[in-house]
Write a structure and sequence with these properties.
Number of strands: 5
Order of helices and strands: HHHHHHEEHHEHHEEH
Strand content: 5-15%
Structural class: mainly alpha
Length: about 300
Amino acid sequence: MPAGALLAPETLRALAVASGSSPEALAALPLTALTGWRYVTALQLPTGSSLFTGPGRRRAERRMIATAREQLRAAVSWLRAGGSLYMTPEGRLSPNGLLSPARAGLRLLLRDAPPDTRIQPIAIMYDFMTTGRMGMILDLAPPIEDAARWSGSQLERQLRAAWLGAARFTCTQLATATLVMLHTRAGAGKPVTGRMDELARLTHELAVALDASGRHVDGRLLTADGARRRVRRYLRYAARHGLACLNGATYTIAPGALPARDDAPAELPGIPPDGAGYHAYPMRYAWNEALEMLDAAGFATRHAD
């Protein structure tokens, strides 16, 4: 079978980019030719039935649905036997920094689960804008009791509130939010520049205010020295990625790196639905996170200035 009879045009284009060929040439090759080493990396990318076209896609979809049903039956049997399950209801990392909705699998699982099934929400945050090792912070929200009795929309609201309420603010979110506020004061089109210690002080004050309100905050931001160390690593990360210029104790943020405060959270250009945009758009990704978290904390307007 020629590759073009089974593989979708998007798949052929991706393989062409990876191998330096043309989509038309690849479409004419037999499928067995695509087992060559030059195509391995592109074919290992996570995908679904969209890899295929025509009858091949329909066969893949039927197989995926049958597999999912088997897995759901096994999971329900495990819960009814007294077992526990760990799962990611969103099914992926956020592509743009905003909390993704829970997918249908959780509701289908709970439909046949024991009535007293309890959900323990876990909030995971990454302090990714740092020159040190990227930190991952886990926090537990209050459990959702008798989860099987809630409707899909009710459960979605409870999960969203639990995750946003338990998520821990890190330097990545708070330093970015502080810079966005400074960007707003500077005015559109003007560079954001200042002293590192002043950015650290403002980030520290926001962290202390959030902590006093009962929100989870990275403890290293709650001391002046800890905030200075975290903010310096944050700015060094920004400089390495072309988002800032450092000159001794001062910094200048590159034009276009920061969104305006009034910018609504938005999709990040060029990031596929199953991708994550924090590498390509660190500050915009962090601002989307911060805006959603601060809004949940009631700080988006009260601490805008």
